[in-house]
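Good morning C.,

I know you're traveling, so I'll keep this short. The sequence:
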Amino acid sequence: MDILVTGGAGYIGSHTVVALIEAGHTPYIVDNYSNSSPAVLDAIRKITGVSVPAFKFDVQDESKLNRLFSRVSFDAVIHFAGLKAVAESVERPLEYYDNNLQSAIVLLRTMRKHYVNRIVFSSSATVYGPKNPVPFTEGMDTCATNPYGWTKVMIEQIIRDVCVAIPDMSAVMLRYFNPVGAHPSGLIGENPNGIPNNLVPYIQKVATGDLPHLNVTGTDYDTPDGTGVRDYLHVVDLAQAHVKAVDYTLGKTGSVEINVGTGKGESVLNMLHAYERACGKTLPYVAAPRRAGDIAECFADTRKAKELLGWEAKLGVDDMCRDSWRFVSQN
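The tokens, ready to paste straight into the viewer:
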């Protein structure tokens, strides 16, 4: 299938592009490179032997998006493009609501105009909010604690409403938990600028010496070692879930929400120690106060992914940390 991947040069998008090629599909990338680099395209070519058609513009640019849809008869769309930093969204809510919602609306409107009726949306476990009990199941009420999370809640609802209005529309909304790791080639992975918001990229920077120590935010939770527990997922497993989701849209109509995780949680200290095993050295950390809005545990009920997509995570935390360390060591 010819598949448009918005934000396809980003962390998850690039791994999904590789997985699509390996599955025999033809991906096309639209990316404005605000949180990625065109250098990723060369890395994808080295991994797959394929030069992926890539177009530099913002998905909000409806005229350019329409021209692309007029040139290529897409069979499906995977929508990653959007701003994604939780803390930044609190500081700049209007920019997040404008960018993320408008991008989705323009994309869906363009799809409708060109009779493209299959979409996989990059959603998030943030839609479960702070009060649902673990494990999170897809039927739980959704809410959010920050503007980024609310954009995911809102876009999910927009997609549901579009599927009601267009009976032959098919949408899968993948709610992922904590993607980490890198491609085993070491050519693509996650290496954010500055001080990362997420745990494993933060540990990476401690391991490379870019940061002096890890701040463990909260050591008094009701968990086995007192630190927060999260469902960490290898990005390669996550990419495979998108391929399965695209396949699922064939012959299906309506919308469905599906968790993508391992179904079990790992504590902050467990992840730190796994990374120490990967890099072969002890990594310093200091205890810090809890962050506002953080919860003790967050992990997925993954039965629906296995039932509907035939997908389940195969790689563990040691694989995640090993591949992450290989990527930062080579780059």
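Safe travels,
E.
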